[in-house]
Amino acid sequence: MSIRIGIFGYGNLGRGVESAIRQNPDMELAAVFTRRDPAAMKIRTEGVPVYHADKAPELADKIDVMILCGGSATDLPVQTPALAKYFNVVDSFDTHAKIPEHFAAVDAVAQESGKVGIISVGWDPGMFSLNRLFGNVILPDGKDYTFWGKGVSQGHSDAIRRVEGVADAKQYTIPVESALEAVRSGANPELATREKHTRECFVVAKDGADKAKIEETIKTMPNYFADYDTTVNFISQEELNEKHGGIPHGGFVIRSGKTGFEGENTHIIEYSLKLDSNPEFTSSVIVAYARAAYRMNKEGMCGCKTVFDVAPAYLSPKTGAELRKELL
Amino acid sequence: MSIRIGIFGYGNLGRGVESAIRQNPDMELAAVFTRRDPAAMKIRTEGVPVYHADKAPELADKIDVMILCGGSATDLPVQTPALAKYFNVVDSFDTHAKIPEHFAAVDAVAQESGKVGIISVGWDPGMFSLNRLFGNVILPDGKDYTFWGKGVSQGHSDAIRRVEGVADAKQYTIPVESALEAVRSGANPELATREKHTRECFVVAKDGADKAKIEETIKTMPNYFADYDTTVNFISQEELNEKHGGIPHGGFVIRSGKTGFEGENTHIIEYSLKLDSNPEFTSSVIVAYARAAYRMNKEGMCGCKTVFDVAPAYLSPKTGAELRKELL
Q1: Whole-angstrom Cα distance, residue B67 to residue B84?
Q2: In what order do the strands lie in the sheet with B116-118?
Q3: pLDDT (tens digit, 9 = 90+) per residue, B78-93?
Q4: What is the ipTM of this complex?
Q5: CA 20 to 30 Å from A161, out of A40, A115, B95, B119?
Q6: Is A18 strand, coil or helix?
Q7: Over 90: is that where the pLDDT of A247 sits?
């Protein structure tokens, strides 16, 4: 029998989950939930019902794992605990500073309901976190580096769009190649914010807007751009749509450390991602962890988990014997 | 209280474990076991006893985890099951084809004794296996590539040393850069053995040996060299000692796959290692898994495990809350 997945929230991430489920024959999409009008919503998978979000509790026996596809700012802090009462849940909560309280909220409900909730799944937090953990435990005498990009930062693009005179914008975060090389050399450099990443902005100005002022406003924007070397390129809406329509992303987690009685040997562990579609890759990670949530719950586990708590074998539809034979 | 580690076999790997334990304050070296004369053995850590291998069962209550540092050909198939009767054990068994039977042998004993045995720990099998698994589950519509090197292959170096007229030798396995680039492009190329790696040999010939014949013998050696582009360099013993005394290694696991309703987006996941010392890095991985074996056993688990069965949090001395706060 397939693992029956519910999608809660049908934006970029929800659509990514929908397409990822198709690549996993042991799973099926059981239902999509939305806060909009379900009758007006068209999804890609034929024959799958769309319900209003409020109906979710009534579907408790029709769905094995509910995947939450809302935002970390206001949706997930409320929705993940609420739905963990009825379902095994997986979310991609990514507000790093608030993970401890989100974990506690989901854990309290899931311990009570006997369900498994896996939070903060994706690539960062998620696969990058795992690689930071593995790097730390293998090379305790070492240093971590995380670089992001080249990729689109939604938050920075939004910040530019709020600048007066801006019609549309896209911002790329770009790791500095010389910083990457310094880290890969094993030199364990101390790198300032400005030395790790640059920011490249493609901006569509409104007719008659003061471009010099827009550029100045962007480059000096605190938190978002002031600490970086930022370039601003003004282009037409057509060019923005044509050349910058995708949502690529990626990055690098590098652990550099020493071993030996005198610390005489240096080792570099590098994990990198090059992603055409940030939401589709995130969704693909989430779907694998949905399988784990289902299987761990079947074995009697409950409560809140993160990627740190999931034995990798649970992610695969293959048996332990198959995994040992084929992948070990 | 520290986790008390025993080292069973004191070669390169055993010394690597000894130095790795020093980097982990929650662990201590309790004893070293050898099949040689313990009285003649000098180890680096002061005050730690060296026992004959036969004495191990008598130390069952003095050691929390026994780390087996012997070879996969004849040592580990016998020793790991034998010691799992008395101890939690970790080994680096790396004969891929025989993993299923080794697993079964260790599992039978460990289920009975109530101990945890983690086999095939290191980087391949080990960290590379984990990355193959993660790649497969995240991008099911994709392809795996594993490249090794640049690094010293002990087996190939030994094979050269057995050639008539050879006094000493060192062999490097080198990934072909253009093959790596083709994989990173997302093209999912089919690569023949010869296209993935080259082999570079540094050979010290005995006085008066026929160098042309040695070179011919190496290059046409079945299994080891015949399927590769191999270069043979004759050098002096002094140069070999001076320039090729290390045991570096490393490699790459790359997963390239597609997502989207039409498979329109390509993603590349790359994990790479650049290691100054193959045995010290392997040891460092093993020591982290020794911590996991101890903690899993404390929680009541038993039986044979691999890296696939170990939730990453068990590898770290930090609490779940610390890990979520600092690394997630």
Answers
A1: 11
A2: B50-52, B27-34, B3-8, B65-68, B88-90, B116-118, B303-305
A3: 999 999 999 999 999 9
A4: 0.96
A5: A40
A6: helix
A7: yes
- Residue ranges with strand state E in B25-162: 27-34, 50-52, 65-68, 88-90, 116-118, 142-148, 151-152
- Cβ-contact B89, B293 below 8 angstroms: yes
In angstroms, the CA B269 to CA B257 distance is: 9
- What average pLDDT score do residues A177-201 get? 95
| Contacts for A12 with CB less than 8 Å, ≥ 6 apart | A247, A279
How far is CA A119 from each of CA A155, B227, B328, rounded to the nearest angstrom? Answer: 21, 48, 10
Model confidence pLDDT, tens digit, residues A112-170: 999 999 999 999 999 999 999 999 999 999 999 999 999 999 899 999 999 999 999 99
Three-class SS state of B90: strand
Token pair belonging to B145: 């590539």
Considering only CB atoms, B261 lies closest to which of A19, A134, A140, namely A19
Q: What is the DSSP letter of B120?
A: S
Nearest chain B residue (CA) to A271: B271
- Cα angle B313, A75, A112 (rounded to 5 degrees) comes to 55
- Nearest-10 crossing angle of helices B76-83, B99-113: 20
DSSP 3-state of B217: helix
Residues of chain B with pLDDT > 90, as a percent, come to 98
Residues 6+ apart with CB under 8 A from B284: A138, A139, A259, A267, B16, B20, B23
Q: Tell me the C-alpha distance between A267 and B103, whole Å.
A: 30
Q: Minimal CA–CA distance to A207: which of A242, A168, A162?
A: A168
Question: B140 touching A, CB under 8 A?
Answer: yes
Tokens representing A240 are 């923005």
CA distance linking residue A71 with residue B325, whole number of Å: 20
Q: Is the Cβ pair B323, A133 closer than 8 Å?
A: yes
- Please report where in the chains the tokens 């055409």 appear, as a residue: A276
Alpha-carbon span A67 to A84, nearest angstrom:
11
pTM: 0.96
d(CA A239, CA A256): 41
**B93 has a chain A CB within 8 A of its CB:** no
The set of residues, in sequence order, having a beta carbon less than 8 Å from that of A52 and lying 6+ positions away, is A33, A34, A35, A37, A38
Mutation target for B interface from A98, A259, A286: give the one with most B CBs within 10 A: A259
pLDDT for res B137:
98
Nearest CA in chain A to B133: A327
B272 vs A267: CB contact, 8 Å cut-off? no
Cβ neighbours around B35 below 10 Å, total = 14
141-200 in A: which are within 8 Å (CB) of B? 141, 184
With contacts defined as CB-CB under 8 Å, which chain B residues touch A315?
133-134, 137
Closest CA to B147 of B119, B182, B120: B182
In whole angstroms, give the CA distance from residue B264 to residue A32: 23
Supply φ then ψ for residue B86, to 5 degrees: -115, -25
